[in-house]
Amino acid sequence: MEGAEVTDVLTPEQRRLVMSRIRGKDTKPEMLLRRGLHGRGLRYRLHGTGIPGKPDLVFQKYHTVGFVHGCFWHGHGCSLFRWPKTRATFWKTKINRNMERDRKALATLTADEWRVLVVWECALRGKHRRALPDVLSLAEAFIRKGREPFAEIVEVENIDGRIS
């Protein structure tokens, strides 16, 4: 049944508490990437205000920005993403808006000649995650030596023309 509302198993108060604990910055995947890249000698600024999309990491020396995207919030078609069954219309609208904002930020960044790296949560978590040293090596290679304007690091099972 398309559009039918499914009853939430949590009370509104419980749902509010769960949702209030979701962070926008300093998430575990972001911290893993930050610590690992810093340990490899890469220096960056955090949460680039004034840069389109407000990237999580700004590598000024390499004119490169990095995003660590949560698969749910950015609608990634991977093993970690599922459309919610409750309030389906609300979530489709919200996630599609996030995806459109991501596309616009990417277009603006590449037009401004920034190089863009997106590391998806599924590359660092879940059943098909990559080993952390592999993710860090791919990210470091893109930042230091890459010539492409854009790269993504995704889970192992979801490789379709992206960094592998």
Describe the structure.
This protein has a five-stranded mixed β-sheet with strand order 1-2-3-4-5, with helices on both faces. The chain has five helices and five strands. The chain is globular and about 50 Å long. Helix 2 packs across helix 5. The chain is 38% helix and 13% strand. With 164 residues, it is of the alpha/beta class. 29% of the residues are buried.
Helices and strands, with pairings:
Blueprint: H1 12-20, H2 28-39, E1 45-46, E2 57-59, E3 64-69, H3 88-111, E4 115-120, H4 121-124, H5 132-145, E5 150-153
Parallel strand pairs: 3-4, 4-5
Antiparallel strand pairs: 1-2, 2-3
Helix pairs in contact: 2-5
Q: Beta-sheet strand percentage? A: 5-15%
Main sheet makeup: 5 strands, mixed
Strand order of the largest sheet: 1-2-3-4-5
**Quick one: overall form?**
globular
Distance between the termini: 38 Å
Number of E-state strands: 5
Mind telling me the C-alpha Rg?
17 Å
Q: What string, H for helix and E for strand, traces the elements in order?
A: HHEEEHEHHE
**From the helix content, strand content and strand pairing, which structural class follows?**
alpha/beta
Number of helices: 5
Q: Whole-number average pLDDT?
A: 87
Low-pLDDT windows of residues: none
DSSP helix fraction: 25-40%
